[in-house]
């Protein structure tokens, strides 16, 4: 009954083509439910590795956390290299009741034969907290939406992650945070490393209706191009219709500094090792926040 009710709710609230298509044809279903007051101390790892025999893969993941529960979760999607094109279309819906806490790490490891579409929605009730880290390590073409609904007073979310693209990969990522209640807070930090002729598009949207007040919302996108042929686009957006809010947004784009390379190479590092160290430092703020090795 719970799964059926969730599917009906998703169907009623999403009228876009991709949502309707996925709900009509999904072929893998996973349900995770955490009872009230329950807490999982160690990370739960769910790794989904799909064989090349499937040319159309459409998993649906439903997560329900009851009041005052806690769930740390690593969700990894992996599709191996194939001679034929693979269509990967996933959807995750998370429902956090009052006081619940979610700590999600999402990892995508797709080959160059994969076209993928992903939509994740998180609905948060009063005084709930979510921390979502999203990592994309490629895929020929992809579009991802991560939408956080702060529907209860005092709810908070932290969104962060990184993408590392190469060759001719194109990834389009869109974060949306809807502050539908007062006294809510969100922080967004995403970094991208690009090389070869790869292309990344980042869109961050903060929505604050006039009925919400005492809202704090921040977002920042940083991009590092390792070659001049790589391309990054950043579109931070603020849709603020309320007073008494605190918002900030920003984006940076840059290449590896020749002065930094020269300094590191004078200390005995090869150019490749120096570049690796610079990229590692660029991503360290995000990677160091993950406890799991």
Please provide a written account of the structure.
By secondary structure, the chain is an alpha/beta fold. It contains 4 helices and 17 strands. Strands 1, 3, 4, 6, 8, 10, 12, 14 and 16 form a 9-stranded parallel beta sheet that branches. Strands 2-5-7-9-11-13-15-17 form an 8-stranded parallel beta sheet, with helices on one face. Helix 3 packs across helix 4 (271-287).
Structural class: alpha/beta
Q: Could you report the average pLDDT, rounded to the nearest whole number?
A: 89
- CA-to-CA gap between the ends? 38 Å
Beta strands, count:
17
Helix tally?
4
Largest sheet: 9 strands, parallel
Helix content: 10-25%
Instruction: Note the run of SSEs as H and E.
Output: HHEEEEEEEEEEEEEEEEEHH
Global morphology? globular
The Rg value, from CA coordinates, equals 20 Å
Q: Pick out the low-confidence regions.
A: none
Strand percentage: over 45%
What's a concise summary of this model?
It is built from 4 helices and 17 strands.
